[in-house]
Predict the structure.
Amino acid sequence: MHKLKNILRLVLVILLVISLYAFASSRYKNRKLKDISITFTDYSDPLISEKNVNKLLIQNNDTVKNLIIENLDLNKSEWRLVQNAMIRDAEVSVSIDGLLKAVVQPRKPIARIMGKTNAYLDQDNLIMPLSKEHTVNVPLVYGYKKNVQDKTFELINFIKSDELLKASFTQVAFDKRDEVTLSVRAFDFKVKLGKVEKLDHKMVNYKAFLAKMQKDKGLSEIKSIDLRFDNQVVVIKK
């Protein structure tokens, strides 16, 4: 008899545990989304707004507070984000308290291509479309062709890595021989760089010449600076 009572108690405990689990599971599955948190890894040049990221996350007419978390497909939401031309990467998750979190890494343009191809070149050396929401202040590239894309990427990154060069050059122009002429922000002279090669050597010469001419206050008299020749800077005055 005593043994039977113990068995009944055990059965009751098991049934209670199962009932509590089922109740908790039901409540968990029926949890509603409370809010959405969108974070950009870089806010310097927002090519897509939080509003449009929100639209990509929630693809139906329901309000956020009516959405049941169990019905959300986080993988699909993440996929929609990374398919957007302005987004490099994204991570989507839901917290225990019902907060849908999206961490978005935007694509970052480093140059704007002008002409037949009107687009950006991004930090991964990929062509990306212009944004309808924001314009980025980056060097302009003229005379772009597919065969000079790698050289464009190399040159723009070289310029970006030096504060003086970054502040100086606003435009890159390729000619038919794939030689480059640079436009300078503060003055109207051009810098003939030639082929995208020996950049360290050419820019050391350029900065040394620039320092000398600034000291002599003669930069306004210059029409062009030619860096194509080894160990010398050729200058044409107005």
